[in-house]
Write a structure and sequence with these properties.
Layout lengths: L24 H5 L4 E5 L25 H14 L3 E5 L9 H10 L3 E6 L6 H10 L1 E7 L5 H7 L4 H15 L2 E8 L7 H10 L4 E6 L19 H18 L2 E4 L10 H4 L14 E4 L4 E3 L6 H4 L2 E2 L5 H7 L1 H8 L8 H4 L3 H4 L4 H8 L9 H9 L2 E9 L10 E8 L1
Parallel strand pairs: 1-2, 1-8, 2-3, 3-4, 4-5, 5-6, 6-7
Antiparallel strand pairs: 8-9, 9-10, 11-12
Helix pairs in contact: 2-3, 3-4, 4-6, 7-8
């Protein structure tokens, strides 16, 4: 039996990081319209695919006063929507105060939850504080979701949370990670979401970070996108019939024959981390995207510098503003869409290889390889160390399809 660190202690935040002497026009033009804020790493579930290995609160999470000041800084920087995540949001005692301050500052406040501790009273409190809508994460149907969440009854808790929020008058959405456990159950899951009155359903691939990096057999292989995308197309059609708006996450794509349908007439563009999105960790760490590994992608800490200075002058937040085709490598460097896509989701590729610029989870890429009778398979060469937001190392094997 493998013994895994179910709820490891988070590493101390990186502090006193250098900032550029001044901002550039491109830094001042970029503005975070959307912020995702982990207000605590504490969680009441130990999901087997959790990238942050949530469970224990961070050792020195922002105080209530620090959090409220951060809300003011977010509003001043031009953020229009703040999504609160965890861990589990409601495990922080002052979460409703934070919600109320966000709403009072003129920003939309939303949240994502696993739903285990959601009651009718909690849902009504969320409405009173100003939550606009709630996303409940359901990663597969029934037993598949329970297996990933690590306890029997997790799926029932998720459906109950949707019902509580709807009864309180909050619009509900759902988020689903696609992997080898959840993928076979997407069709019955969608039917349940339709019955639950879910307004929109966002799907994305499980990424090899945190606990998911400990279970590589659960991750889809890049060549499995060939089978997945026709199913996503059919699911999109069925979702419309049910009145559910199905959307594709940032690592679902790119440029294949279903892109138009899945993205509503658009196609995936390059990573928006540090361009229009902002990630915040509970201890004041600032990143361009909340999912990026903290060790390599921390731009600064709110206890050392203002949010504006970190946003405009921190090197890790400038990466996507400056990225060009010359920064790509592997297949992505030679791709027809290289300058438009620029390797897509930075998070997905970085945790595989320890550097950005090459992303094998691409439908166009899988199709191009298949035309030559080839496919790519990922093989783990080093395990993840077992800390929040960690990752292992992988190599790509190109073989006959």
């Amino acid at each position: 039996m493998r013994r895994l660190p179910i709820a490891p202690h988070a590493l101390p935040p990186r502090r006193a990081l250098p900032l550029a002497a001044s901002s550039r026009p491109v830094d001042e033009e970029a503005r975070p319209r959307y912020a995702i804020w982990e207000i605590t790493l504490a969680c009441d579930t130990a999901c087997g695919h959790c990238g942050s290995r949530a469970g224990r609160a961070r050792a020195d999470e922002l105080s209530t006063d620090e959090s409220l000041r951060l809300v003011d800084e977010l509003a001043a920087l031009g953020v229009s929507e703040v999504t609160l995540i965890g861990g589990e949001v409601y495990l922080r005692a002052d979460w409703l105060q934070i919600v109320a301050r966000i709403r009072g500052s003129g920003m939309t406040c939303t949240m994502v939850t696993g739903g285990r501790g959601v009651t009718a009273e909690l849902a009504r409190s969320a409405v009173a504080a100003g939550i606009a809508f709630v996303g409940v994460s359901l990663d597969g149907h029934g037993a598949a979701h329970d297996r990933l969440r690590g306890f029997e009854g997790a799926y029932a808790h998720g459906l109950a949370a949707l019902a509580h929020f709807r009864a309180a008058g909050i619009a509900v959405t759902s988020n689903t990670q696609i992997n080898r456990i959840s993928s076979p159950t997407l069709e019955p899951l969608l039917e349940d979401l339709g019955r639950a009155g879910v307004r929109s359903w966002r799907v994305q691939l499980t990424v090899a970070m945190g606990r998911a990096a400990d279970a590589v057999d659960v991750l889809l292989q890049p060549y499995e996108l060939l089978e997945l995308f026709p199913r996503l197309s059919a699911l999109h059609t069925r979702a419309a019939e049910l009145g559910v708006h199905m959307t594709a996450g940032n690592n679902i794509g790119y440029f294949g024959p279903y892109e138009d349908q899945l993205r509503g007439g658009c196609h995936m563009v390059s990573c928006r981390a540090g361009i229009s999105t902002l990630g915040i960790e509970a201890d004041g760490t600032i990143k361009g995207c909340p999912s990026l590994p903290s060790e390599a992608w921390t731009g600064g800490n709110l206890r050392d510098a203002s949010l504006r200075d970190i946003w405009e002058r921190a090197a890790p937040l400038r990466v996507m503003r400056d990225r060009s085709v010359d920064d790509l490598w592997g297949f992505c460097r030679t791709c027809f869409y290289a300058d438009e896509c620029r390797a897509g989701c930075t998070w997905t590729g970085f945790v595989l290889f320890g550097k950005p610029g090459n992303n094998p989870y691409c439908h166009h890429r899988a199709l191009e390889l298949a035309r030559d009778g080839k496919r790519e398979r990922l093989v783990q060469t080093a395990a993840a160390p077992g800390t929040p937001f960690d990752h292992g190392e992988f190599m790509l094997v190109v073989e006959d399809l």
